[in-house]
Inverse folding.
């Protein structure tokens, strides 16, 4: 009897806590964008080629393993830094156990490994657990170099010799 009462109380609490209020017409609109557009999990080498190597914006590639504790600690930090950049850089997550060929191709000997890729080429690399400040500097450097390359390309197009 006591167990049933406790179960009912817990169920009622969970139900109450999971109810979401819908905004009324007087409320200001809420943003429905998610990190899904800023990050994705690579499914296979073909997916990697299409979404990472052919990307128009820089891509940060996170090589991780589900059993790796430092990887689990790194993921939210990396997602946060990428989200701050609002689509100017993308995060691609590669599970090394599901994509061993990719891990071998990019010489991933331990995890976590973070690669910065721009125009299909590796431009920088970090190995191991990193704090958010170091991740920000890493991502900002890649973005800055991408912008400089784009400006040079635009100048060459505008002033052909």
């Amino acid at each position: 009897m006591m167990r049933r009462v406790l179960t009912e109380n817990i169920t009622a609490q969970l139900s109450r806590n999971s109810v979401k209020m819908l905004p009324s017409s007087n409320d200001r609109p809420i943003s429905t964008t998610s990190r899904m557009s800023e990050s994705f999990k690579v499914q296979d080498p073909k997916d990697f080629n299409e979404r990472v190597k052919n990307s128009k914006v820089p891509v940060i590639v996170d090589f991780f393993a589900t059993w790796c504790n430092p990887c689990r600690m790194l993921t939210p930090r990396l997602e946060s830094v990428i989200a701050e950049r609002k689509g100017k850089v993308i995060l691609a997550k590669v599970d090394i156990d599901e994509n061993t060929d990719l891990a071998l191709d990019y010489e991933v000997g331990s995890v976590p490994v973070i690669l910065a890729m721009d125009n299909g080429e590796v431009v920088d690399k970090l190995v191991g657990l990193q704090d958010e400040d170091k991740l920000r500097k890493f991502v900002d450097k890649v973005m800055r170099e991408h912008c400089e390359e784009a400006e040079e390309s635009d100048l060459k197009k505008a002033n052909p010799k």
Notes: Confidence is low (pLDDT under 50) at residues 14-36. The radius of gyration is 21 Å.
